[in-house]
Every structure is written in C-alpha cells, then in structure tokens.
Amino acid sequence: MGVLGKDYLDYRRPMTHTKVQFGADQYWIERNEKEFSYGETLVEILNYDASNYLECVGRLQNAMERKCDDEVLSLLPTVGEEFMKLPFYRTYVKEVSILELYLMFPNMVSELYADVRQIQFLFEAAEDISLIQERYVWFLTNALQEETEHRKRGQRKTPLADRIIKNYMEAFVSGKSLGSDRHVDAPNVQVQYAVVETKEGGAEIVEKIYFDRLSDFVYVELLKGLQKGFLPKRCPNCGKWFLQEPGTDFTYCGNPSPQDPEKLCRDIGSINNFRNKAKNNEIWSIHQRAYRKYYARMMKKKMTRAEFFEWAEAAAESRDEALKIYETAGVEERKKLAEGYKVTVNKL
Fold first, then answer.
1. Contact 302, 311 (CB under 8 A)
2. pTM value?
3. Which residues contact 109 (CB under 8 A, 6 or more apart)?
4. Contacts of 49 (CB under 8 A, 6+ apart)
C-alpha cells in the first residue's frame, strides 16, 4: 500500500499513469502481486503481434478525422479490448472506463474532436509499441548480442557494458528511443522509495516510479535489468526473444522447437552445436568415430559396459587435453596433433 493510502485515494490519477516498484531482483506493476523479472515485459513486447491493435487504432484515427460518429462509436469498444491485451497494460488494466461514457452518451463523441486528449493514451500505446519493436531490436542486436561461436573454450563472456562500448553504442544509451536520435535525452523520472513485504515473509526497500508512457517504462526496465545481468536475447532457432537471467549463458530459448514440438529449441541447438563441432574440428571427428566404434563393441558384447564407460571417460579426458592445444595451433601442428590423438584414443 502506498504512503497513507495515497495510491488508492488519488482518483484523479490518469489510468496509464502507472506505478512500478523496483526491487533488487524483481519489480511489481501497480496492484498486481506478481513479481516480474527485469526485461520480462520488453521480451513480451518484442514477441507480441500488435497488428490487430495497430489496425484498430489506425481505423479509429481515420474515422475521427472524417468525424464519422457512428464509426467512432463502433470502434471504441474494439480498440479498448485490444488495448487491454497489450503487454504491461494487461497486467493491471481491467477496463477502459472512459470509453464507457462515450458509449452511454453518444452525443459526447463530438467532444473528442475538440479534446482528443481524453483517449490520447490509445494512440500513444500504438506509437510506443511500434517504436519499441523497431528500436530495441536494433539496439539489442547491435550493442549487446555476443558472437558466442567466436569465444574460445573456457573464455568468459564479455560484460554487457563492455559490449556496448566495444560496439561504439554508448552514446545511444542516453537516448529515449535507444538510437532514434543520439541527441534526445532519456526520460526524466522522479524516484520515491517504499518498503514492501516479500512473499518470503521479509521486507525490502524498493524504488517507486510513476510512468506515463510505455516507452519510458521499457527504457528504465531494460537499463536496470542490464545493470543486474538480465539480457533479452533472440533464439537463432525459432526467432523469438527470451530472457537470459544472471548466471546463465544460453544461446537458444526453452520453448518448444518449430521443427519438433516435443523438443525444446535449446535441445535442437545443443544437437546442432555438437554436430558442427564434430564437422569442423578434427579432434572431435576422431573422438566421435572412436566413440561409435567402441559403443558398437559394447552392444555386440565384445566389451563390458564397465569397460566401455572406463574407455569413454579416458577418451574424453584425452580429447579435452588435445583441444586446448588444437585451438591455438597452426595447420601442420593440428595435423600432427590429430594423428597422435587418433592413435591414443584407439589404444585406450
């Protein structure tokens, strides 16, 4: 609850003047008790098909320009319903009450032409969704994504801030639209603090910020998330965005794969990565051929399971030792190393 019930007693507060409380590892939107991870709303927006909403808003704007009252009245409920499906707003907006007035009193529709601010939030949401889906994809792709295939074995991933600097993108971070104009400052937000009870029974001091635009909220959510290690990434298998949380380093998402719904994209990615390793690295190729040969021996009862697993463990250890040298070796040295490993792995 807000200080002295302020958030509940301030009836004049616009519907989309949204209160968000930012904690250490999660945040809360308005009176929704759900805990959101940093970047969760942005990922949902990037994956959201907003075509229905954009189409409805476009038709409404066109009808208002033509001052076609009947068409405006028929479109208002549809636009309101689509608005309540939008990421972020759907978490707390249960009804667009202002539209009810125009439906109950059709003669009020003419007032919209004189003061369109009454429903301006509907048009602003369309602008913000379009901007986010364009500019944030651009920023995340060019500033933060890291080419993991070029990282050497055991090499740590590059910190997020270092990636931004390495890609010469730091000037855009202070831009409201993350790249639309490097001279546009980020939104000014006023921060208050509050103490909230956690589900674990403790308490936490949180930052309390009010947002009038979805674009302002997403900007703060992304940058706060990056500070804490939350990174939106695009799955190279299905093309959808997913949220990589601190301490993890997944290239593929955990959603069902389009190729095989019974498997996850992460499973498909692991299989493809493994095949690429075996195809492009002679040490891996030798290891896999030897593995299949000894596995066939075990299946034909020419060696026991215990003997096979003992061989597999020794072969993997020998493979990893060879790979450490192989990755930095020259062409001739790699050839000799592969020949030596082939002899070793078949003598174990």
1. no
2. 0.73
3. 69, 72, 73, 102
4. none
Q: CB-based contacts of 20: which residues, under 8 Å, 6+ apart?
A: 27, 28, 29, 30, 208, 209, 210, 211, 217
Cβ neighbourhood burial of 86 (10 Å; 0-12, 13-18, 19+): buried
Q: How large is the average pLDDT for residues 221-227?
A: 94
Q: What is the layout of strands, in order, in the sheet containing 27-29?
A: 27-29, 18-22, 203-211, 191-197
Query: What's the number of CA atoms in the CB half-sphere (13 Å) around residue 83?
Result: 29
* Distance between CA atoms of residues 148 and 127, nearest Å: 34
Q: What is the DSSP string of 195-224?
A: EEE-TTS-EEEEEEEEESSHHHHHHHHHHH
How many residues are present in the chain? 348
Residue-wise pLDDT for 185-207, tens only, equals: 667 778 999 998 877 778 999 99
- pLDDT tens string 13-30: 567 889 999 999 899 999
How distant, in Å, are the alpha carbons of 40, 169, 317 from that of 348? 50, 52, 11
